Amino acid sequence: MPLLIAEAAHATYAELLRQTAPQLEIRGSADPAELARWAAECPLWLGQPDLLAALLAQGHKPQWLQSTWAGITPLLAPDLPRDYRLSRAVGIFGQVMAEYVLGHLLAHERRLFARLAAQVEQRWDNSLPRSLAGRRVLIVGCGDIGQSVAQFLAPFGVELFGVASRARAQAPFVEVAGMDALPHLAAEADYLVNLLPDTPATRDIYDVALLARLKPSAVLINAGRGVAVVDADLVAALEQGRLAAAVIDVCRQEPLPPGHPFWTAPRLLLTGHSSAPTEPPLMARLFLDNLARWRSGQVLRGQVDFARGY
């Protein structure tokens, strides 16, 4: 079965897949011209949504496309076909995202960046740190990644609240409410962690009205999608002291252009879309599991509902 791998790390993926599925006829590249030459003969595609969206735009189409990203926004452009099976990467980002979130929570409570600034100024900083115990963490987006983050944080004694597309009981959260409860729960949060996908319903939700609900001591962490945050409103909240800090991993435009206000906003840390990188061994395992499901006509793990956008 011919497989097209469109990935910067295509050689690594090819080696991993050949070890378990030597029957696959693999064509791999990150060169758009090479990919276009092979696309028509390959019914299965694996790779980066940005590279594969370009092939779809040229009129090529697979029977099944497995994204190596959790986000699939490039593949949802209105002029691209949707009559094929699409699955996004799921179940492989939980721990790395949890480590990212926990690292920044601990850095804030232990005042690591303030102490580094004091050291640069040769100023002795003996201010006392705080504990995570009893802090209220609101996770917005309680799918498999949000669930993993919550399970990772639970042993630290935080109070876990969640917001999802619908209210539900979900351990270890105290409560998972629907999106309509976001303003109320955000007002009580010490940390607001956005993990939402990019859909029409999740764009521009962190605007001036919602940010005004947050406590001045609250920290916003956006590791979901950049379009969820209204950039100018976040910068204004930080400049006016209405928010303690923000950690921004994803932006509306990447790389962030020179002169963007995020570069100089006070107490804003940019982490360059590095929160949860794809690990090729885990991704290869997911692809092989989905390959068996595809061959037997089963629902794929992470199968996308084009109407919902995820």
Quickly describe the structure.
It contains 10 helices and 12 strands. It has 310 residues and is of the alpha/beta class.
- Report mean pLDDT, rounded to a whole number: 97
Helix/strand-derived category reads alpha/beta
The number of distinct helices, counting runs of at least 4 residues, comes to: 10
- Choose one word for the global shape: elongated
Estimated radius of gyration: 21 Å
Sheet with the most strands: spatial strand order: 8-7-6-9-10-11-12
CATH architecture of the largest domain: 3-Layer(aba) Sandwich
H-E order: EHEHEHEEHHEHEEHEHEHEEH
Task: Work out the count of structural domains.
Answer: 2
Largest sheet: 7 strands, parallel
N-C termini distance? 27 Å
Portion of residues in helices? Answer: 25-40%
CATH class of the largest domain: Alpha Beta
| The named CATH superfamily of the largest domain | NAD(P)-binding Rossmann-like Domain
What is the CATH topology descriptor of the largest domain? Rossmann fold
Q: Strand percentage, roughly?
A: 15-25%
Low-confidence stretches: none
- How many beta-strand segments? 12
